[in-house]
Amino acid sequence: MTTSFYKYQGTGNDFVMIDDRSLSFEADNLSLIQALCHRRLGVGSDGLILLRTREGYDFEMVYFNADGSQSMCGNGARCAVSFAAFLGMCKNECHFMAVDGPHKASIRGNIVELEMGPVREFLQIDEDHFINTGAPHHIRFVENLIHYPVVTEGAKVRYNKELYPQGTNVNFVTELREGTLQVRTYERGVEDETLSCGTGVTACALLYGKLKELEEVSVETKGGRLKVRFNSDGNGGYTNIRLIGPAEQVFQGIIHIPQEALASN
Hints:
Layout: E1 2-10, E2 13-19, H1 30-37, E3 47-52, E4 59-65, H2 74-87, E5 93-98, E6 101-108, E7 111-116, E8 123-125, E9 128-132, E10 136-141, H3 150-158, E11 169-177, E12 180-187, E13 192-194, H4 198-212, E14 216-221, E15 224-232, E16 238-246, E17 248-256, H5 259-264
Parallel strand pairs: 2-3, 4-5, 10-11, 12-14
Antiparallel strand pairs: 1-2, 1-17, 3-4, 5-6, 6-7, 7-16, 8-9, 9-10, 11-12, 12-13, 14-15, 15-16
């Protein structure tokens, strides 16, 4: 099978992007998605994103993790906005549909500001926390994050069936200075640490903002810096949540996936 694609990255979170306005991509073919995302045998990415037309919106984003599962992805959505602007589906402002509902975004140069859904529930789990920002996120504050065993400890939480029957993303956080966090994330669906996770960064910033009574937080990830802005809703939750950072096209190409490769995945 031969497929045209674009490669995008947002603070190191990378994605295979496909213009699927013709609805010709085999979205139900998990082997194809896994093959395209494979870092040795395919393009290599944390996920795959299809852009489609959707009545009443500039576009629809259909997101798949590298294993073929679906979820919301903040950095992926920012990259989708950049890709949609490249394709002429929107300009400086856009309104699009994702798996968790409608979103608005703006784009200025390579900086995309994405509106996330409201968050009203904060759960404490022993000394850790849980927040859903369109994707589930377990959060743990730690010391010496640079040397923390993110993959080992993240997998323990992600695969805790008693606590998370459907699994979860796991974030490890350190305060660098007032108003700035360092975050590392083990992502469900990738089953590894990624360089950045938009919904995870958002969850960590909201929790930290709640604890410190802030409405803007900067976050350092392995892939770069993101900023999160938000407003209190007066009832312990937050609205007008904005995830802000760069999203860039890396390259474009055509890949042929042999039938035997699809059969083996």
